[in-house]
Specification:
By secondary structure, this protein is an all-alpha fold. The chain has 10 helices and no strands. It has one domain. It is elongated, with a radius of gyration of 21 Å.
């Protein structure tokens, strides 16, 4: 096999891409502190990435919790442990469903918005114009959007888990007749600080991964309409797969 075919093989291409993303992350981290000196940009990106994602996060969290209440009650009823519905719902939401589903929804809503926005700036030569005016696009455009996504993810995951637990309570207590006192007392006794910290850690890692992929794909998008569309598609696919992969790795580490 020739050197050229080896260089163009899928493992080599994937390795080069991972290295490029890692170097891009280093460049972003180098601009995070200067970006924090412009709080108005960070607040704007927090609003775009976090506040504008609240509706889909809240609705999804509520309905996921309601489905979890139905399925959990049906399963626990077979073992005569209906009162443990709150424990099952809380642990499932805090440790798995909250961070993972929030990350997938965040990638589909905020991640695509970040990629298309930066990609459009690349296609219309706005990033080039900033460089000509001695304005660093990494500091002005990329770093605030990256930080906004990283900060918004744990907050959205907490809202998702809270509304999910409310939905499980709504179905379990109001619809299925589970005792409300047992629901909350067993939940408080079973949920530990380690469970909460696991969910927070996962949401932070997912926030870094999804935000990094979104800004990277947008910054390196081909400056055409088709290129921006392909970059947006790659953001959703790569973010979803990486979220599930990281979830397995982090779960194995915590266990």
């Amino acid at each position: 096999m020739s050197r050229r075919s080896l260089a163009e093989s899928p493992p080599a291409v994937a390795l080069r891409r991972i290295g490029a993303v890692a170097l891009f992350l280093v460049r972003i981290l180098g601009q995070c502190l200067p970006a924090l000196r412009q709080p108005q940009l960070l607040v704007r990106q927090l609003y775009n990435a976090g506040a504008r994602s609240l509706v889909i996060i809240m609705l999804s969290g509520l309905f996921v919790g309601m489905v979890l209440g139905l399925q959990g009650f049906d399963l626990l009823q077979r073992f005569g442990s209906e009162d443990a519905l709150g424990v099952a719902a809380a642990l499932s939401l805090l440790k798995e469903l909250g961070p993972v589903v929030t990350s997938l929804l965040f990638a589909g809503r905020a991640g695509t918005a970040l990629t298309s926005e930066i990609g459009l700036m690349r296609a219309t030569d706005q990033l080039t114009a900033m460089q000509m005016m001695a304005v660093d696009p990494m500091r002005r455009v990329v770093a605030p959007r990256f930080l906004g996504g990283v900060i918004a993810m744990p907050l959205l995951a907490a809202i998702f888990s809270g509304l999910g637990l409310f939905g499980a309570h709504l179905v379990g207590v109001q619809l299925m007749g589970v005792d409300a006192g047992s629901f909350w007392s067993q939940t408080q006794g079973a949920v530990k600080l380690e469970d909460v910290s696991e969910g927070i850690t996962k949401s932070l890692v997912f926030g870094v991964a999804v935000s990094l992929i979104a800004v990277y794909e947008g910054y390196h998008a081909t400056p055409t309409a088709e290129g921006v569309g392909l970059a947006t598609t790659r953001t959703v696919v790569a973010s979803s797969v990486l979220t599930l992969l990281l979830d397995y790795v982090l779960t194995a580490m915590f266990l």
